[in-house]
Amino acid sequence: MSERSLSDLQTDVIERTAKASSTASEGIACNACRKAKLRCSRDRPHCAYCRKTGFDCTYESKRTKPGIKAGAIEIVHRRLDELERRIDEQAINNARRDHSSRDASIHGTSDSGANKILALLAEELPKLVNSSQSQVTSTPEHSQRSTKRRRTGGADASDASDHIPSLPESRDLEAVVTNYFFHIHPWIPMIHQARFIQRLEDPSQRTQIMVIIQAMMLAACKYVPNAWSHAQTPPEIRRWVICTAMDSMSIEGQQALVILAFNDIGSGNATKAWSIIGSLTRTVEYLQLAQEQGDGRRRLFSRPYPTLSPTDNWTEVEERRRVFWNVFLLDRFCSVTMGWNTSLTSDDVFRRLPCDGHLWRKEKPVLTPYLGIWDKAKGRLGNPISSVSRYPSPTQMTTRNGEDHVQMMDNNHLITTVPDPETDMSNVGAFAYNIEATESMSRVTSYFLQQNINVRDNHEIGAWLTRFKELDLRLVHWKLLLPQKWKANPNLTRHVPLMDPNLTTAHVTHNASMILLHQPIAYPPLHWAFRKRLPSTCSAEACYLAGIEIATITEKYLGKSPLGSPIGIQFAFCLFIAARVLLIHSRYTPGILLPPEFWSLHQSLKEMSRRWRGLETLPASPVSINESRRQHQLSSTEDLFAKYATRLKNLYDLCQDETYQLDVVDYTNEINHSSGEADFGTNSWSNMAHDTTLQDYHVSQALVSDLDTSDYATIPLLDQTFMDMDRVIAFDDGSMFTVDLDPNNTTW
């Protein structure tokens, strides 16, 4: 084809296109006539209406589709977010003013105005959304992006740790930290208050301790009015703390997780805490917190990688030591309450006990003894207890020739020994004694209650009863070796205004350990053919007295402790064990009525529940929108103390049926530790122990016929000294539960 022919063809195409466009536009009215809804004369270049009005006469062949302009919905959502933020700030400012009637009326007026604005926006927003649907066909991608509301709180788990939650104003933050050290710190003493305040005031240290601050917010905000006024909710803060603490191994991360686990268990969310505790028990080993720093007696050919840098600051070393012991207590609490194996064993732990909190606060370096952790392999039935500990226990004494020796009773006289610096307890405080008492309770469950024995085997029964006597003697021995300054005040020369929380918990734990140890002997199953040879009367009396004293100690402590101060989770468990054994005692002992101390313990648990919830139990006050949402989230879960109280009332109701039988040692299945509200009214819970007991009764008939009672002649007899032992710690005016310090100083 020639160049001329190609040029003619292109010209012809252009002319046809222009003619078609002109023909299509001839039937279209101009923009001015269309807007005025008039019939257009379609004159060119100006129609009659445009010539008359002077408007520009423009013809557009392509009409624009109706609908909201691009980005309009996004702008509306941004304005909504800004409006919500301003309303929230206004509510916070009003709440910080005086709670007088004048300010209350101003707050009510502003709230009503804000509500009107929100109501108006709620009416207009559906119209905007509905009208925007016509725009989807024209701009689908942009419309889909604009109609999605931007997330202002809570991100995905993948980037949860990238967005640091906001903090309240400095005045509220100071109140949160103060309330943490006043309410929470006594039960988990692991943060040096003076050092923490210094780091908090140092901008360069603020990022490093942010995870601790957020954990403190979760635990202590319920004791500070309107402290939860920032945008994040408790689940979002908790998720951020876990992600940040797990992202790297640090002391601050472990401290935050300890606070989190303590708060979860007390709030009734124990199932969320078990995985955290499991992680903590492994991480403290990776951080080498389970081993004493710089001890020359343990040298390894292949040393582990040092995750933490060593420090010469004794105060920091003691803080690390206390972090480990708090993880240790959580591990033991988890094991005792759930019936699981302990994670921190003698192969892992080589640690000195924490010093007296008064000395730590003054940053005065001292030396404390090691805690001897029992070896599970050597602690099997048949092995004497004196050989199961790798290191000397603080409650042991050492003879002059250096042989480790447990102080025993010989003809009602104590064997005189010389104290060894490795076992000198003069520098330890109440927290260390609480650790010892908790480990004693763990030994009762691990080395006695969880031992598998064949009730047909005379040798195994003898070994099991020997272990019972050894543990009983250990508990009595621990009570006898309490420091003289913490023993009873015989002349009642001083009045005790306050009771130390850790020392009180240690004594209550000791009494609860006595109950756990003696209740299988006091109330043996029917299928034990040797049950009549057991000192059941002596053990039942020990259980009863221990339960009564726990009720007395608790009542005194609640009366002497600061009003509104919470109680530790282990304390609550001991109360449940005490009340439960009083109920069992009244069921199994003929002619014994349920003592009033049972209801005293029940009421104490309800009071502890009220204290744990903090300001949520106080009369309603002006709060922000986020504060109301937080209170609703927390109140939907029954806390640990309320669960124990509910279960005790449920057991009491079940025991009104004379055919119902309680399983004495099955306390681990009494409580539903899930985050939902406890439900103990089902047949599966209420009749479990009854069915088991009836089954044991039928089994007993076969066992008795197979065994000869003469086979039990070799079972160790329990002499008069065993019967006369003083096992239970009594209140005695509270002198045994405090330390010689002013109320402003604590001894943790």
TrEMBL record:
The keyword Transcription regulation is annotated on this UniProt entry: yes
Domain Zn(2)-C6 fungal-type: 29-59
Superkingdom classification of source: Eukaryota
SUPFAM superfamilies for the chain: Zn2/Cys6 DNA-binding domain
Region (Disordered): 130-166
One GO process term, biological-process aspect: DNA-templated transcription
InterPro entries: TF_fung, XnlR_reg_dom, Zn2-C6_fun-type_DNA-bd_sf, Zn2Cys6_DnaBD
Subcellular location per the Swiss-Prot or TrEMBL entry: Nucleus
A single Gene Ontology CC term: nucleus
Keywords: Metal-binding, Nucleus, Transcription, Transcription regulation
Stored PANTHER family: ZN(II)2CYS6 TRANSCRIPTION FACTOR (EUROFUNG), ZN(II)2CYS6 TRANSCRIPTION FACTOR (EUROFUNG)-RELATED
The protein's name in its UniProt record: Zn(2)-C6 fungal-type domain-containing protein
Species, as recorded: Plenodomus tracheiphilus IPT5
Origin organism lineage: Eukaryota, Fungi, Dikarya, Ascomycota, Pezizomycotina
